[in-house]
Amino acid sequence: MESTHIAIIGAGLSGLYAAHLLEQSGIKDYRIFEARDLPGGRISSASVDALDATNIGNFVDSSNRFDLGPTWYWPSLQPQLHKVIQDLGLQTFEQFETGDMMIERSPHVFPSRIPGYVNAPTSTRLLGVMSVLIDALQKRVSSARIVTNHTVRQLSICDQGTQLTCENFIGQTIQCQANHVLLALPPRLVEQTIQFTPALPDSLRRSWRDTPTWMAPHAKYLAIYEKPFWRDNGLSGAARSAHGPLVEIHDASMPNGQAALFGFLGVPAHVRKDVPENVLRTHCRAQLARLFGTDAATPLVDFIKDWSQDSFTATAADATGPGHHTQAPTAAPHAGQWRGRITGIASEWSQQFPGYLAGAIEAASLGIEKLFESSINQDIIFKFPVEKK
Fold first, then answer.
1. In which domain, by residue range, is 64 found?
2. Of the N and C termini of the chain, which has fewer Cβ atoms inside 10 Å?
3. Same domain (yes/no): 224, 294
4. Are 228 and 295 members of one domain?
5. 344 or 389, which is more confident?
6. Are residues 234 and 280 in the same domain?
7. In whole numbers, what is the pLDDT of the chain averaged over residues?
8. E strand or H helix at 293
9. What local confidence, expressed as pLDDT, does residue 322 receive?
10. 182 and 103: one domain?
11. Which residues face 163 on adjacent strands?
12. Does 98 share its domain with 195?
């Protein structure tokens, strides 16, 4: 049976950043178990190239990739994330907001044009989409330590520490022992999909189960064009609608690259699941044509990413939940047999930015810091330079 000092469940932003911090400290004895076929988690992108339609890929020109997951961050409000981005040498640009915006006040009134506004603080994007953040972290983590297509089904206490039971994509069972497990998955997903033996304390289970996963009930529509024709008409690409199906729309174009519009679907998740995707796309194209003209009806390609239908993100409870940010639950058991064995480091465990990209960085940093402190207490010496916020 394979063994490792630290097991990380999930290769999204928090999992990869935790591994990056371990590498920085000289700690090499860890493994990352990822259920998807590629790292990234809720950071996902698409392009005209069909090979990149669902996730990241270095073979695609980064100027023509577009976010299907998180899109923005705010440097002045989220300095820790901004420093990580700077340290990784990634370039940023401000969200395009120049021009008028479109409004659909009801299904019975024609769209109207109103003066646009610039958000403060300004929303900031990464050149090459958020997936370049995942790409950059992957380069700083040994690929041999990332095990993809392995879903962790059970965590069990054993004499040697904690035993992980995983299932690969062909249904084979693999086991691994670890001294400590970092949970880089949303709390609700952990509670719903991983069996703990013995069971977690009831109060902890309830708090994890009752923590909504940010964006899990939502869906994004993305339409890619050759050029941002709406800008020629003095429009910012922003729109708000009480008609739908998109309730909020933004310019998603890349500087010196292809153009795009994206919007959030206002159709509830429990309704969307019974509507064929081609029907939703047709309605979205028709809405963009109403708002931005006939050119909007014929994108080069369009995508719908319904996070509520992503089993590696959402549970049944997320389909009917509000999807808003909530207070972070306790990240680790304070007593009982699981004390000192597991720590939650996904974004929803962040105290300052639960659900945000900045939350993933904060929660991972705090989780590694606590792991270091507990290891010192056990006379395990790590060289670990965690930056204090």
1. 49-129+217-309
2. N
3. yes
4. yes
5. 344
6. yes
7. 91
8. none
9. 62
10. no
11. 156, 177
12. no
